[in-house]
């Protein structure tokens, strides 16, 4: 059994679109960067740059605090 190799994009998706700020209310975008267990995915997996990874983490944490995103998926609580 060999290692699983993840192929990521060469550039940050947010840099391509010219995004400076990531909106914490945009749950559709934020949910792409969260694992099934509710953890924030690392830069290596998502392909985001360091600047946008920091902005993304803050936005996800804000969305969790005001209950737009769950801290943990419901099927892991049982």
Automatic annotation (TrEMBL):
InterPro entries: Ribosomal_bS18 (IPR001648), Ribosomal_bS18_sf (IPR036870). One of its GO terms (biological process) is translation. One of its GO terms (cellular component) is cytosolic small ribosomal subunit. It comes from the Bacteria. Keywords: Ribonucleoprotein, Ribosomal protein, RNA-binding, rRNA-binding. GO terms for molecular function: small ribosomal subunit rRNA binding; structural constituent of ribosome. Belongs to the bacterial ribosomal protein bS18 family. Binds as a heterodimer with protein bS6 to the central domain of the 16S rRNA, where it helps stabilize the platform of the 30S subunit. Part of the 30S ribosomal subunit. Forms a tight heterodimer with protein bS6. This is Small ribosomal subunit protein bS18. The gene is rpsR.
